[in-house]
Specification:
Rossmann fold, four-stranded parallel beta sheet, 17 helices, 37% helix, 14% strand, Asp/Glu/hydantoin racemase
């Protein structure tokens, strides 16, 4: 009897321990790079010894802080600047997609976005940790089939090259990624979007021309000075002799609003919100200047602006639509130039956040409106801007650099784009340490207040589905990038990794 009770006690301890391990993912102290390479965490481990290097049959990995990087991927997927028969460069291409023989693995770290806020909240170490975790995911084989799954699967393909489809991650993490790969003994090319954006901007400005260049990016990218530093380096190296001024506009709230982050947008709201963190007449960091409300030309209808008091003299103003965010930031950029002494005209704008190219038409409309904008019969901004300002998406040059690398390294594949895979991060509800708001997202304080070095599964990386992506984001993807959207749908419907999902949540 005593022996039976003893055995039952042992079994109880075993099952309690097993249950604890499956429900409460372990926490390991240390630098994420050490944890990965020393195999100190069951999820964040990587077998670099047997990594299939220089294998052209592998996919290309691409990651961003959310769904914005799909705009970069879409440009890559539709890129046609080479003749596929002999791989020679041709401006007009040959009518065949250059990457038609490749396939891609995409990760959007939606749960931890926007990345641009980590610098603002003085937590760059955590941002860098997220970036290395993103790279680990692309290199490794692990993923969760659904957000409810307690166990991960281990059959995702590793990658042969990495594209950082995020300006903030490029600015703060590219060097760290390259150092990590070198330490791991992995010869994997890393391509970031900042160098590509700089090249695109300088291509539209003459070497002896005076011009201003605008950089519209997240607060983190702006604070990193990544674009300014790279522009200055390239201006010098390429022998530009004209006076070139650089103006940066930190797009606080815009990327978050595009991805539906509740800190910046709540489409159902009809009154001011206490948890709003975007531009406002009461936010000294990103103020709405009530003296120039006419310049912003906000759309005040149907809750697109939230405020208190009378419409003629609104107070506690909050932006609640993507179009109004764009209007605010374009005006703010032009106000910087207007207040600068003797600034040359704005002749190029880099859309330095991967979310922004989804709304190129809206940006263009705002610049065109300001070119025509008058007060008291006088143009306010016309002398400060070209009539037609190129809005430059770094994605085109990113695609060009990727193709050139795969070609020179002998890594061009003969596979099928329809094999591409799409994953997104969601809060890991099996981790008792996480803190969620009423919408099931990380609270702002928790998201940006966590400390680097406490390695744990804050999130699960799961396949794209309607269940984990807001409906309006799904609609935007379908409308803006239809070819890529069809690949996402094909992944949902055909890949057995999503077999556990019901038809109701598929694209």
């Amino acid at each position: 009897m005593n022996k039976l009770l003893f055995n039952l006690a042992i079994l109880a301890i075993f099952f309690a321990s097993f249950n604890k391990c499956t429900q409460n993912p372990p926490v390991v102290e240390g630098d994420i790079r050490d944890v990965i390479l020393e195999n100190r965490h069951p999820y964040f481990s990587l077998d670099v010894t047997h990594y299939p290097q220089k294998d052209k049959t592998l996919p290309v990995g691409i990651f961003d802080s959310g769904t914005g990087g799909l705009a970069v991927l879409d440009v890559i997927l539709n890129f046609d600047k080479y003749n596929n028969s002999d791989l020679s460069y041709s401006v007009n291409g040959d009518g065949v997609r250059d990457f038609s023989g490749e396939y891609f693995v995409y990760l959007g770290d939606q749960a931890n976005m926007p990345y641009g806020n980590y610098e603002k909240e003085h937590n760059v170490p955590l941002l860098k940790e997220h970036v290395i975790k993103d790279v680990h995911f692309l290199l490794d084989k692990k993923y969760y089939p659904t957000e409810q799954a307690r166990r991960y699967k281990n059959d995702k393909s590793p990658v042969k090259a990495i594209v950082i489809a995020c300006n903030t991650a490029t600015a703060y993490g590219k060097n760290d990624i390259e150092a990590f790969l070198e330490r791991a003994g992995l010869d994997i090319k890393v391509i970031g979007v900042i160098d590509a954006g700089v090249r695109a901007a300088l291509e539209v400005i003459g070497k002896e021309e005076d011009a201003s260049i605008g950089v519209m990016a997240t607060a983190g990218t702006v604070a990193s000075q990544g674009y300014v530093r790279t522009l200055r380096e390239q201006i010098k190296q390429l022998g530009y002799t004209g006076r070139i001024e650089i103006f940066q506009q930190a797009g606080v709230g815009l990327a978050g609003a595009i991805d539906g982050a509740s800190d910046y947008i709540a489409r159902e709201a009809q009154s001011c919100r206490s948890d709003y963190r975007g531009p406002s007449d009461t936010n000294s960091d990103v103020p709405i200047d009530t003296a120039i409300l006419g310049c912003y030309n906000f759309d005040w209808s149907e809750g697109k602006m939230l405020y208190e008091g009378d419409r003629s003299r609104p107070e506690h103003i909050q932006i609640n639509s993507i179009k109004n965010y764009i209007a605010y930031h374009v005006v703010s950029l032009m106000e910087q130039i207007r207040k600068a002494p003797d600034a040359p005209p704005l002749k190029a704008v880099i859309l330095g956040c991967t979310h922004y190219p989804f709304f190129t038409d809206e940006f263009a409309a705002q610049f065109a409106r300001l070119y025509q904008y008058k007060e008291k019969g006088r143009y306010v901004y016309r002398h400060l801007m070209a009539e037609h300002i190129p809005l430059l998406d770094p994605s085109e040059n990113t695609a060009k650099e990727l193709f050139a690398y795969l070609k020179s390294a002998g890594l061009l594949n003969n596979s099928d784009l329809k094999r591409s895979e799409f994953y997104i991060s969601v809060p890991n509800r099996n981790n008792p340490n996480i803190q969620l708001d009423s919408l099931g997202q990380f609270t702002y304080a928790y998201k940006y207040g966590r400390k680097a070095g406490r390695i744990q599964e804050y999130v699960k990386r799961v396949p794209f589905s309607k269940k984990v992506i807001p409906g309006q984001t799904v609609q935007r993807l379908q409308n803006k990038i239809p070819f890529t959207f069809e690949l996402i749908r094909a992944f949902n419907r055909q890949n057995d990794k999503t077999a556990a999902l019901t038809e109701a949540v598929r694209f």
